[in-house]
Amino acid sequence: MNTLVDFRFKPELKAQPGQSGAKRDRHGRSGDPLYVKVPMGTIVKREGLVIADFTEDGQEAVIARGGDGGFGNAHFKSSVRQAPRIAEKGEEGDTFEGELELKLLADVGLVGFPNAGKSTFLSVVSNARPEIADYAFTTLTPNLGVADIDDGSLLIADIPGLIEGASEGKGLGDAFLRHVERTAVLLHLIDAYESDVAKAYQTIRHELSSYNATLADRPEVIALTKTEGLDEELIQMQMEALKTVAADRPIFAISSPAHTGLKEVLRELRTMVTEARQKKADEEAIDDEGMPVISLSSEQVAKAWHVEKLEESDQIVYRVTGHKIEKFARRTNFDTHEGLNRLRDIMKKMGIHHALTRAGAQGDSVIRIGQDEFSLVEQKDDF
Fold it and tell me: What is the per-residue DSSP string for 196-255?
């Protein structure tokens, strides 16, 4: 897959539900998982937070989990309880409104004004065949191409032309700028016929840093394009003008149609990409070797709980939160004495009952777990 367009026509994704248990100790069948294919570079967000980032081919992640099935009454059978009337409900599956976002994965990102020669450059150095014309905004979607250089290759992304105000959404700029975030190195192409190449360079740099401050530190190569029709003196003048605002950046003069200066640019890009990838790997290694972090085990986190006294307008409610106790509550059938009293017994074993009484809860106090409310001790008029 290369795009997320299919999700426009099928926005709801739903796995097959499980089935209820049956007589003679037969278990209910689990629902089959739903596998959803997405392009590499896809990010999945839930309430604005990234929950999965697909950067490798074949990578898998569980986005939404099905609810656990409840135990049937046979599970609670014992020598003293031959015909138990306790049975758990199955839990609801995970349901939420997610957001899919695609950011192209590339070694090099081409940036520059519309008609700066990005598509022509990509078509000459790679196997990509983008639409090319002599007017601005020819490219309306990002293009990817592989450029071979010496004994290696570079994956290059042609980002549609940026304009002043792109970081604020002008010209669909904010829709395209996100693709630059994944690139290791930027190749900034500037039309040699620009009347003020230094200003053109600074305008695009401003839009990049306004969109994401980290892009200001991204390794960058500058290429003056369309030089095939210019004399050497004018080319040098334009390059000198660029050096006044980008003295620390490598600057090249190239002509894609004439195939001049391209190998030199690609070799510089490959060197910088290798260095950038190595630097990132070194930084991640340093982070991994940082100070030891003391944390609770997953089992301890699951068993943890918290009691909170809430003074609401018409009553006092004691709210109990915690992964494990909330899970028990979701599987409890509150319409039966047996199910509710089992939940109360679990609360005693976990120490929650004692904590509630210390917080001031009485036998008829309202206890809230998740969306369900009940009294701390069974009352005569409960059922």
Answer: -HHHHHHHHHHHHHHH-GGGGGS-EEEEEE-GGGS-HHHHHHHHHHHHTT-TTS-EEE-B
Mean pLDDT of 56-75: 85
Q: Tell me how far apart the alpha carbons of residues 161 and 177 are, in angstroms, rounded to a whole number.
A: 10
Please give the structure tokens belonging to residue 201.
Answer: 């360079």
CA distance 89 to 72: 8
User: Taking Cα atoms as reference points, which of 346, 357, 344, 349 lies closest to residue 307?
Assistant: 357
Could you read off the pLDDT of 139-158 as tens digits, one per residue? Answer: 446 778 889 999 888 989 88
Q: Which structure tokens are listed for 209?
A: 């840093």
Cβ(15)–Cβ(62) under 8 Å?
no
CATH number assigned to the domain with residue range 1-102, chosen from the 4 options 1.10.10.10, 3.40.718.10, 3.30.70.920, 2.70.210.12: 2.70.210.12
* Beta carbons of 234 and 241 less than 8 angstroms apart: no
Q: The tokens of 348 are what?
A: 């005693």
Tell me which residue has tokens 């970081």.
167
> Residue type for 230, please?
L
Superfamily designation of domain 108-288:
P-loop containing nucleotide triphosphate hydrolases (3.40.50.300)
Phi, then psi, of 127 in degrees rounded to 5: -90, 5
pLDDT at residue 379, as a whole number? 84
Amino acid at 352: I
Return the residue matching tokens 């210390």: 358
**162, 234, 228: which is closest to 201 by C-alpha?**
162
78 or 167, greater pLDDT: 78
- Domain ranges in the chain? 1-102, 108-288, 298-375
In CATH, which superfamily holds the domain spanning 298-375? GTP-binding protein OBG, C-terminal domain (3.30.300.350)
